[in-house]
Amino acid sequence: MPLLFKKIKDLRNYLKSRRCEGKEVGFVPTMGYLHKGHRELIKLARMQNDIVVVSIFVNPTQFGEGEDYDRYPKDLERDLSICEEEGVDVVFAPEVAEIYPKGYRTRVCVGELGNILEGAFRPGHFDGVATIVVKLFNIVQPNRAYFGEKDYQQLKIIQQLVEDLNIPVEIIPVPIVREEGGLAYSSRNVYLSPEERESALAIYKSFQLAEKMIKAGERDAKRIKEAIRAFIERHPHVKGIDYVEITDENLKPKETVEKGDRILVAVRIGDARLIDNWKVEL
Amino acid sequence: MPLLFKKIKDLRNYLKSRRCEGKEVGFVPTMGYLHKGHRELIKLARMQNDIVVVSIFVNPTQFGEGEDYDRYPKDLERDLSICEEEGVDVVFAPEVAEIYPKGYRTRVCVGELGNILEGAFRPGHFDGVATIVVKLFNIVQPNRAYFGEKDYQQLKIIQQLVEDLNIPVEIIPVPIVREEGGLAYSSRNVYLSPEERESALAIYKSFQLAEKMIKAGERDAKRIKEAIRAFIERHPHVKGIDYVEITDENLKPKETVEKGDRILVAVRIGDARLIDNWKVEL
């Protein structure tokens, strides 16, 4: 079993002595309820580091009013066995009061990149993400940290903040892992009924449709976005599409699509809000 | 002579190998134009650490529109000889573009503590301070960092952010150093003409007046503040008093004065804006 720490001080003491032995630390921050996507992050961390630390913490400050903080799925027992299977050395699973003691005030503010796409629908979300990530980096002081491309905007924001704040950690992006059928793994998929899950496949299929249009010569972002939107909308249980956007790799909206651009979508299906993205390959 | 680094990468390489030898690093962040106050910070750092790093960087993001960024005094040659005299090992004096390359966006936001007192007169100042301090901590990764009590609000904000963001550094406060006559050492004293400097002594004298009132039994913060204000205002060259406040040690305003409280003032004299503070001893 991996070592389980709930206190910052205990984790730090352990890691300090490992670091003094010259060990390199790989870090996978998660909100728990681990799935195959997390496993890929952990596998890569396992290959590239001496010590692998996984944090499990559902961060309240990145959830907005009326979002799913209270019902976010949790299963520490299961998470620990997955970590064991993947050869994780240390699991850090603090209580909220350990991370945010009374009186905390300082936040990391990510600026414009945090106000577009997800940020436009979840005000304050990325400042919450940035703050917890900076805190966890300071607690773990890893050599490398692993983030999935599923949360592409989050990945870009973290890359930006690491550069902006001169944080001495290497950010390693890991490609999206999809179920058979194309649904991207997400802890929030648990909110979907079997019928809604069927509808959720529309997201992946819409990317395939877009890729097909682009391969056939279509380059107009507006027309591609409209096709994606129309395709997803005609599926049952789709309650709304928060956005369909095509950007360059740095999240700058595009009018003319090129290789390497990203298609990003957020769709509300049943009680779930799913995000996904696709790299235009051509 | 201390080693002089202008590039983050070179400084990091040097410190990395020192740290691997088990050396502890003490850090004194400054805006240069070093004076006796800085010397005290350096002396303490010298006593408590194996390696002493002094940074010299006039941080543009903590200056507001119309403030003295462009005329802030600079003298790197002189600073280097002071550092040599005090046994500093490393001086880090980067250009602005090294610290803020094009496209930087992330800021550290300190919240309410940054909006009162100095923050009310210098909007954004403390976010600028917090951001550069976090960046420098990440670049230097010191064991200890030294801050003067002269900038008392800055000290409290840095203590708060280090705790809030779990930064692994010990903050060491150093008492105010005063010239004969009581004027607190400050790089900005250079803006004062001899006559204005004479008037500036009113600040220290007003603290002595307050201490006397308190010793005589006065506990009403309002009356003490009024006495300080009236005393300072009757001196020539005093262009205005931005604030006179009495707070507890955590900057919470007080109505009834106790031992350990702080009196904080900001006064505009000639072309200078001077801040100072005083711990109520009783």
Summarize the structure.
Two copies of one chain form a homodimer. By secondary structure, the first copy, chain A, is α/β, with parallel strands linked by helices.
Folded structure, characterized:
Two copies of one chain form a homodimer. Chain A has 282 residues and is an alpha/beta fold. In chain A, helix 8 (194-215) runs antiparallel to helix 9 (221-233). Chain A has nine helices and ten strands. The first copy, chain A, is globular, with a radius of gyration of 19 Å. In chain A, strand 3, helix 3 (76-85) and strand 4 form a beta-alpha-beta unit. Chain A folds into two domains: 3-174, 3-Layer(aba) Sandwich (Rossmann fold), CATH 3.40.50.620; 187-276, Pantoate-beta-alanine ligase, C-terminal domain (Pantoate--beta-alanine Ligase, Chain: A,domain 2). Chain A starts with a strand and ends with a strand. A six-stranded parallel β-sheet of chain A has the order 1-4-3-2-6-7, sandwiched between helices. The model of chain A has no long low-confidence stretch (mean pLDDT 97).
Task: State the strand order across the main sheet of chain A.
Answer: 1-4-3-2-6-7
At the fourth level of CATH, the homologous superfamily of the largest domain in chain A is HUPs
Largest interface: A-B, 28 and 28 residues
- Going by helix content, strand content and strand pairing, the class of chain A is alpha/beta
Provide the CATH topology of the largest domain in chain A: Rossmann fold
* Uncertain stretches of chain A: none
Count of helical regions of chain A: 9
In N-to-C order, the SSE pattern of chain A is: EHEHEHEHEHHEHEHHEEE
- Overall geometry of chain A comes to globular
Query: Cα distance, first to last residue of chain A?
Result: 44 Å
